[in-house]
Design goal:
The chain is an alpha+beta fold and 232 residues long. Helices cover 34% and strands 16% of the residues. It has one domain: Muramoyl-pentapeptide Carboxypeptidase, domain 2. It is built from seven helices and eight strands, in the order αααββββαβααβαββ. It binds zinc ion.
Length: 232
């Protein structure tokens, strides 16, 4: 089946670039992972708001994304904040902004990490945990800008709000990152070669974590070895 085109005008592209850059700067030190649409709209002017709403209301299934609609969930109350995570990248130390996980998922992650450390002396950090629907849209626009507005590519990689397992606390997804900064945006699939990934393949299920998007999955989503869903 041929998928539809999604034209983006030069003005919209420019607005998206501006929004992405500004929110990245302004987002530092703020609780962006759990921002709601009301607070997001307060950071935008009318034109920016219009373009954000256009992308919020996309049906990604018209464009080749086949994962199910999970619904726009309320921001849960049992979130645990994960602060001060640091990894080494290109010789320097990089800090991850505050991340959030529902409490049962956080506890399972800690158990998994303890077992990982016991077995191979490595630890995994949470690169991304719970993301509110508004945050999910910011992430989508960021990658649209990053991939030079290649909509067909981004729509298969980054979910529209309501379709993301990062916004689905009942079966919360996490993105892991190693303490040496893998994956990164330049070469994300490097993660599949790590000791940590090989350990996850053998052991993560014991802790309730399952790989959502293995190689050649039927959901139309790109292979994401770092993305695991908690299903318990
Ligand atoms: Zn993910």
């Amino acid at each position: 089946m041929r998928t539809k085109d999604f034209p983006i005008s030069p003005i919209e592209k420019q607005l998206i670039s501006v929004i992405s850059e500004r929110l990245e700067k302004e987002g530092e030190g703020r609780e962006m992972e759990i921002i709601d649409f009301h607070s997001l709209f307060k950071l935008l002017n009318q034109g920016e708001k219009t373009v954000v709403i256009k992308f919020r209301d996309i049906d990604p299934r018209l464009y080749g994304f086949k994962a199910p609609y999970l619904g726009k969930q309320k921001i849960p109350r049992n979130l645990i904040a994960i602060r001060n995570q640091k990894y080494v990248y290109k010789g320097g130390s990089k800090k991850i902004e505050t991340r959030y996980l529902p409490k049962p998922v956080y506890i399972a992650y800690q158990k998994l990490n303890a077992a990982l450390y016991k077995d191979v002396k490595r630890k995994l950090l949470i690169e991304s945990g719970y993301r509110s629907p508004a945050r999910q849209l910011i992430v989508f626009l960021y990658y649209l800008n990053f991939h030079k507005f290649n909509f067909q590519k981004v729509v298969k990689r980054v979910a529209i709000p309501g379709y993301s397992e990062h916004g689905f606390p009942k079966s919360q997804a996490v993105d892991f990152i190693t303490t040496d900064g893998i994956p990164n945006d330049e070469n994300p699939r490097e993660f599949a070669k790590t000791i940590e990934y090989k350990w996850l393949l053998k052991n993560a299920n014991r802790f309730g974590f399952y790989e959502s998007y293995p190689r050649n999955n039927k959901l139309g989503v790109t292979f994401e070895p770092w993305h695991w869903q908690f299903r318990k």
